[in-house]
Write a structure and sequence with these properties.
The complex is a heterodimer of chains A (167) and B (68). Chain A is an alpha/beta fold and 167 residues long. Chain A has seven helices and seven strands. Chain A has one domain: Beta Polymerase, domain 2 (2-Layer Sandwich), CATH 3.30.460. In chain A, α6 runs antiparallel to α7. Chain B has 68 residues and is mostly helical. The chains are: A alpha/beta (167), B mainly alpha (68). Chain A binds chain B through residues 2-6, 8, 28, 31-36, 38-40, 118, 120-124, 129, 132, 149, 152-153, 156-157, 159-161, 163-165, and chain B through 1-2, 4, 8, 11-12, 18, 22, 25-29, 31-36, 40-41, 43-44, 47-48, 50-52, 54-56, 58-59.
């Protein structure tokens, strides 16, 4: 069966509709900053306060989220309690893969990610997006071969951004 | 987030040292510049199109392998 492209717009819209506090990180944030890579999933860092865990859990249930890379019969309910007891999760949803991180290596939690995030419109949805500087820190900390490939491009983008900074 | 003007793009692409460094590191500077000249919304649309194409090619490749 042909694989369909993930529907990032629907995922972002559902998160926004339920007022989930999150920052867009990973590949889509890199694309926002000008990187020319293709990403198959959407990564977010979420706030771990009680209300946000409830809101995020509600979206995950709505999106039909299941843990990725585990046996399909493994019982799992993405409720606020489960989110509180864990930290970083990788989900398969009805609209594509969604990774939700309570903490980003090299950066920190939601507050650190949100501190200097841009607020912009992505796929028609207003979202916070991790800054280029913090994205570089995250890639350095992750250190996987694919992150190191991205890192070179992100450092070039930072160099261009610094050169063309306007007051 | 930056968005480059044509004049910015020309200046950057005329920097031979940067061009050589990118070539050595396998970075497609021209593609980065092209992206940086687009507004963010268009960068995502471009990505979504590339993603659809990538999946279509992946699917076609899989079909060809199955039939051979």
């Amino acid at each position: 069966m042909a694989e369909t492209a993930p529907d990032f717009e629907t995922i972002l819209r559902r998160l926004q509709e339920k007022n989930v506090e999150f920052v867009l990180i990973g590949g889509l944030a890199a694309i926002y900053h000008g990187h020319s890579r293709v990403t198959f999933d959407i990564d977010i860092c979420y706030a771990r306060n009680k209300n946000n865990l409830k809101a995020l859990a509600s979206v995950l249930i709505d999106l039909g989220a299941k843990l990725r890379g585990v046996p399909v019969d493994l019982p799992f309910k993405p409720d606020a309690r489960t989110l509180k007891n864990g930290l970083n999760f990788t989900f398969l949803t009805d609209h594509g893969d969604l990774d939700v991180l309570g903490e980003v290596s090299g950066v920190g939690g939601y507050n650190e990610c949100a501190a200097d995030a841009s607020i912009d419109t992505v796929a028609g949805v207003s979202v916070r997006i991790l800054s280029l500087e913090r994205l570089i820190s995250a890639k350095k900390a992750a250190g996987r071969p694919k992150d190191l490939n991205d890192l070179q491009a992100l450092l070039t983008l930072k160099e261009i951004a610094d050169r063309t900074k306007r007051p | 987030m930056i968005q480059l003007t044509e004049s910015d793009a020309k200046n950057i692409l005329s920097d031979q040292s940067l061009c050589r460094r990118c070539e050595k590191e396998g970075i497609d500077l021209g593609l980065l510049i092209e992206n940086l000249m687009l507004p963010p919304e268009m960068r995502f649309k471009r990505h979504q199109n590339a993603l659809r194409m990538a999946l279509a090619f992946k699917d076609a490749g899989e079909r060809a392998r199955r039939s051979s």
